[in-house]
Design brief:
340 residues, mainly alpha, globular
């Protein structure tokens, strides 16, 4: 995986620094913080992997280097100074660390919103820990930017986008009506992108990079929702796969699906109607438009990997179904032979 392998040493370094920072949290929150970080540490075998959060700064640094190399033969093109190029490794490292803390903070926020029966002790632990994570994120991103008004404007914008997307998802059909809102649920991640581009004088790249990032975030959510549809159905969370199944049913005038779908209906759609194959094709046809100028090869590769994962899931389900059908046929043939 070219979007991951070249950056493994850098990832080890950012997680090690994040661990050191958490170790300096006030006691006993440092122990709680280290235990929480361990759940997401890419170096741990069974950790939750959230690649886009901590790889994004390294993908952006790679993009800037590639663009600068190409611009050498086109002097009229906007490019990056040699001083800024020298700062890329250190800057991408700092933003990688920052994004780990952003991820940790918002995972806690998700837990607080999605788990109604958290005990008083759990709330007592999670709320201050979340605030410490967020403080680290903002401190790192704001470093070297001072009172730069544009940074803080984007900061407010992306937090507002996140709040709106999360608050309104139960009342909207994001996948078909507002797909941008799916990406907005991860908008705080973009704060580090702004901090990075501002320090490099590369804000002219922002529209293309945001387009590619949003596409990857939407397809990532579509992948997650394929795995989480049962949990989301119980918790009444918005789920792209459930929305897709409901949309298809309404389009085919199946009135039973017009309001809600049941677990049985979803299983029928998945295993009998090959809905995942169409779901994968929808992701590929809807969220793969090309940027106008500045292409992040790793970000595009990550998005394409996610789409391929959807296609592979569809193929696996199809093959498993055929195996079961063949097994049933073989059972009846053998039964007939035995009885004769």
């Amino acid at each position: 995986m070219l979007w991951l392998k070249p950056f493994e040493l850098q990832l080890d370094a950012v997680f090690e620094e994040a661990k050191q920072k958490v170790a300096h949290f006030p006691k006993p929150l440092h122990e709680l913080g280290l235990a929480y970080l361990d759940k997401f540490d890419i170096r741990q075998k069974h950790s939750t992997k959230n690649y886009v959060c901590y790889l994004l700064p390294f993908w952006i640094a790679e993009t800037i280097q590639v663009h600068t190399a190409k611009a050498v033969s086109h002097p009229s093109s906007a490019t990056v100074s040699s001083l800024h190029l020298q700062s890329l490794p250190e800057l991408s490292h700092r933003m990688g660390v920052a994004n780990i803390f952003c991820m940790l903070h918002f995972f806690i926020q998700d837990d607080l919103m999605d788990t109604p029966n958290l005990s008083t002790d759990q709330l007592h632990d999670l709320i201050p820990l979340s605030q410490l994570f967020w403080n680290e994120f903002v401190s790192i991103c704001g470093e070297n930017l001072g009172n730069d008004s544009s940074f803080w404007q984007y900061y407010k914008q992306f937090l507002a986008e996140w709040a709106s997307a999360v608050y309104n998802e139960a009342d909207a059909d994001y996948l078909f009506e507002q797909p941008q809102q799916i990406a907005s649920k991860v908008s705080p991640l973009k704060i580090s992108l702004i901090a990075m581009l501002l320090q490099l004088d590369c804000m002219y790249m922002l529209p293309d990079l945001l387009q590619q990032l949003d596409q990857a975030l939407i397809v990532l959510q579509m992948n997650d929702d394929l795995s989480d549809w049962q949990e989301d159905m119980i918790e009444r969370n918005y789920n792209c796969l459930l929305a897709f199944i409901r949309y298809e049913a309404v389009e085919h005038h199946q009135a039973l699906f017009s309001d809600k779908v049941t677990a049985v209906q979803v299983q029928q759609a998945i295993y009998d109607q090959e809905v995942i194959r169409r779901y994968a094709h929808y992701a590929q046809s809807s969220f793969t438009s090309a940027p106008s100028l500045f292409v992040s090869d790793s970000l595009i590769a990550f998005r394409n990997y996610l789409i391929e994962q959807l296609h592979e899931a569809a193929t696996s389900i199809h093959e498993a179904r055929n195996t079961l059908l063949q097994g049933s046929l073989l059972y009846f043939i053998q039964k007939d032979l035995t009885s004769s």
